[in-house]
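Workshop exercise sheet. Pairs work together: one partner reads the sequence aloud, the other fills in the structure field after running the prediction. Swap roles for the next sheet.
Pair: D.N. / O.F.
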Amino acid sequence: MNFLLETLRLGLSNLRLHKMRSLLTVLGIIFGVSAVIAMVAIGEGNKQRALAEIANLGARNIILRSVKPPESQKAGSTSNSQSWMIAYGLTRLDLSRLRQTVGQITQAIALKKVSARIERLNLQSTASVFGTEPTLLDVTRQHVSRGRFITDADNRNREPVVVLGAEIARRLFPLEDPLGQTVRVQGVALRVVGVMALTAGGASPPSVPAGASAGGPRGGGASALTNRDPQFDVYMPMGTAEAQFSDMTVNRSSGSTEAESVELSELILEADNQSYVPAVAERVRRVLAMDKQPRDDVEVVVPLELLLQAERTQRNFNYLLSSIASISLLVGGIGIMNIMLATVTERTREIGVRRALGATRKHVVAQFLVETTVLSGLGGLLGVALGVACVPGLRTMRYWFPQAMADLAEPQLTTWSILVSFLAAAAVGIVFGLYPAVKASRQDPIVALRHD
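Structure field:
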């Protein structure tokens, strides 16, 4: 014990004699440790955001979407008239088959898109207007902030009512309470009975006069997976949508006319248990392929699969970030070795004196290893402090520069990154200090005593 304390005292006293050199020696360790912590915090923040966004779609859900086939597959087109009719996507027959043949499904919710525009007086906005069922909220994580959602009675009686997304309500009713007000969808008057709660996503510009472009819905979160921002969704009873709006839409542009027929835009299936989701998804794909091979007009999105894939991807990304940041630790270790080799030359006479007084090679190795370990340990502690301080600094930068750092998730500090980076710094001191220590211990005492 006395030997260890004496060795530690000697090592610290030698470091104190050269404070500036010691600090410059551990700069690589300091920046390496802080870089690892900051990089992992950024990666963890992005991971948590991605996982939360995917989880918001429901880990037990399977989402089916109608997808427009490529141009080359359009049927019924004529080169002379430049007009065609195309029917694609999910059908009511698909919904019936899925309900009858796919077991372990608790609910199957249909959505029918009826318009991409909604109007109120002289205001209009881009929106995704859907006919749907009252049980939609049971399989999604959406909530109504004001008023109510559509009911079974609305659906049976085909009531002309709608529930607005949070951003649509803000656009069309910037200064008024939307409840009880009237909006129009393709000329059909509908009464607002509810407003959905605000969800995480992108902000949007204010409402614009009719005839002006409002810009498409945009936002982060689950919108990247559902091709739309839920803040721009508008819901009406499915019975109303089927009674008031046709399955067919006609688009005219540049002398061409295109008619599209889509019965159902989206289906959301909920499995009994999360463990059943992969098997249920596979059965759903087989049912959809009963009529056509391949069925390329329907896209199947399984949030659970995306969740697991995102976890794997983010784990690999964290490894990559940590590896890149660890290069600084390697550079710091090389710096420690370089300085300690120079120190061995400086202290050759001291080594000779200690050996002459009875110090063994192990004693000399221990002294130099203590110095390198203390250097890397102090560097690791300073690096941890700097890295931890970087996390709130990055959060502050996100607040000061919201546009420039809009895609950066809020960094999340992790305990494992602090422990691993500090232990790696200490290991660097031992590994890179071992060679100079061994070299010092192999000095010939007689030659060392004669060294000036």
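Discussion prompt: Residues 303-346 form the longest helix (44 residues). What would you look at next?
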